[in-house]
Amino acid sequence: MTSTLESEFLLPEVKTWLSQPRKLLIAGRWLEAVDGKFLTIIDPCTGAQLATVAAANLADVNLAVAAARRALEGTWGGTTPAERGRLLWKLADLIDENADFLRQLESLDTGKPVMETYVFDLPIASDHFRYFAGWATKLTGESIPTSLPGEALAYTRREPVGVVGAITPWNFPLAIAAWKLAPALACGNTVILKPSELTPLSALKLGELILEAGFPQGVVNILPGLGLEAGNALVEHNDVDKISFTGSTRVGREILAKSGGNFKRVTLELGGKSPNIILPDADLDVAIDGSLSAIFFNQGEACVAGSRLFVPKHLRSEIVTALKSRAESIVQGFGLDPTSQMGPMVSSLHQDRVMGFVERGNQHAELITGGSRNTDLPGFYVNPTIFLGKDDLEIAREEIFGPVLTVLEFDGIEDLTHRANSSQYGLGAGIWTSDVRQGIRLAHALKAGSVWINGYGMLDAALPWGGFKSSGIGREMGSAALATYTELKTVWVNLL
Ligand code: NAD
To answer: What separation in Å is there between the alpha carbon of 289 and the centre of ligand 1?
Structure first.
């Protein structure tokens, strides 16, 4: 199951939980898949089997969609906004109470350093449920004056979209599940959550907490399964009203094409190749540390990873030297080890994919550091890798989704905006400068859903999150998410 080193840190209750085959949550009950199939979950730090989880298929999706529809038209549809808010708040409290358990599951399943779950995954999850608990009672419409002859009262209402299929990736399984479930439930929808087949464990634990919080049966159903089976069944299902997807641009494009049967509402949070720009007047020490964390946080398996680092030509040598020495001091290790600063790739397949980019990059760009698998450890590790490259190389254009940084030099900032924007993606961007006015001007010119000045990658339940161009459609988080989980209805009352 887990390695000796992992066993040292593993909580006994987590060990027991992992030893039981995990099931699907449908209509408030834990069920085996109709066809009895299982997914084998692998520990990326060791390559060993971590758990077995029921694998949903079309038949299970049909059951879950029917349960979600019944809940929507039954108890949940009649729940007051205050009651929905109370349940969401209770769930946030339960997440906090079970934080150590969830932290370990998340770290074991993804390989990420457990220390990162303290600052990101866990607080993000409970913050979202608390933030959207507050919105449940504030989903107001408007009363709007009309101009037709006669007298009328006309107003709008926000109503739930209906049954939501939420499909999530493997890099931040708990946080992303939370940022979909919280607004969907606050707005009165019911949900079928399909976590990634690689990392379904924290979503299943969350399912236990959802039942404990007291959500009526069928309001949240959790169906781990393959994308082409469970995911596709949700996307093509005519009784699913909305798909909220986070994942690759390739799959997002397929989902958009396939979900038109019943004109589902679709929101997509997709990939990125985000520019991170160090301007000549930046505090270099801060900018270099920030840029390393922009690319290496979560092993580079982050949609907003600052994977294209633009540096001034005259400072290139100084910046590259510092990047190299600091990258070489990053400690890779088992996720549960509190001294680990970087974990492995999520799977052996993904490790091969990342190494493919690295090997092709090596033929055309100057390798500064890394460029290899870390074979000192048993899992799927890739050493932090930095290239000095050019804009047209694959490593500067394609999303690698691993610990690979491409440094690009610039000479004067005139064509910098154009170069930074020359990407099919538009998810995030970073700017490091001591001239905030210059930073703001550049932030407004960059085509990205989030731009950070003198920082990188922060997100907050209250702030909209999403991408320009091929990085997605729609926004999650903040009040912006409410529009995507509600339908706006206009009601006319003739007063004559
Ligand atoms: P992926 O697209 O392979 O899979 C994402 C989810 O979609 C998984 O649950 C998978 O099972 C499912 N899926 C796969 N094929 C499907 C299909 N044909 N129909 C329906 N569902 C299908 O992505 P991944 O490899 O899990 O995650 C990495 C990607 O996610 C990266 O591109 C990354 O940038 C993106 N991402 C984006 C954000 C964001 O907020 N924009 C956040 C995290 C990750």
So the answer is: 29
187 in catalytic set: no
Q: Which two tokens stand for residue 231?
A: 């995911």
- Strand-pair partners of 143: 155
Catalytic residue among 303, 399, 409, 476: 303
Which of the residues 106, 197, 269, 399 is marked catalytic? 269
Q: Kindly state if the Cβ of 167 falls inside 6 Å of ligand 1.
A: yes
DSSP assignment of 286-308 equals: HHHHHHHHHHHGGGG--TT---E
CA of 121 to the centre of ligand 1 (A): 18
- Structural domains of the chain sorted by starting position, each given as residue range(s) with its CATH number in brackets: 4-270+479-490 (3.40.605.10), 275-448 (3.40.309.10)
Alpha helices in 146-200 (DSSP H): 173-186
SS3 content of the chain, % helix, strand, coil (to 5): 45, 20, 35
Task: Give burial (CB, 10 Å; 0-12/13-18/19+) of 421.
Answer: middle
Q: The whole model's pTM is what?
A: 0.97
Rounded CA separation 351/121 (Å): 22
- pLDDT tens for the chain, 496 residues long, are 456 557 789 999 999 999 999 999 999 999 999 999 999 999 999 999 999 999 999 999 999 999 999 999 999 999 999 999 999 999 999 999 999 999 999 999 999 999 999 999 999 999 999 999 999 999 999 999 999 999 999 999 999 999 999 999 999 999 999 999 999 999 999 999 999 999 999 999 999 999 999 999 999 999 999 999 999 999 999 999 999 999 999 999 999 999 989 999 999 999 999 999 999 999 999 999 999 999 999 999 999 999 999 999 999 999 999 999 999 999 999 999 999 999 999 999 999 999 999 999 999 999 999 999 999 999 999 999 999 999 999 999 999 999 999 999 999 888 999 999 999 999 999 999 999 999 999 999 999 999 999 999 999 999 999 999 999 999 999 999 999 999 999 999 999 8
Site to probe by mutation for ligand 1, drawn from 171, 172, 174, 465 as the one with most ligand atoms within 8 Å of Cβ, is 171
Q: DSSP letters of 224-253?
A: ---IIIIIHHHHH-TT--EEEEES-HHHHH
Nearest atom (ligand 1) to Cα of 251: 2
- 160: tokens are 């739930």
Q: What is the CB-side half-sphere exposure of residue 343 using CA atoms within 13 A?
A: 31
Q: Does the beta carbon of 394 lie inside 6 Å of ligand 1?
A: no
CB-count exposure of residue 254 (10 Å: 0-12, 13-18, 19+): middle
Cα distance between residue 232 and residue 259, in whole Å:
9
Count CB-CB contacts under 10 A for residue 35. 13
Count of CB atoms situated within 10 Å of the CB of 285: 9
Determine which helix (DSSP H) or strand (DSSP E) holds 190, and give its type and residue range.
strand 190-194
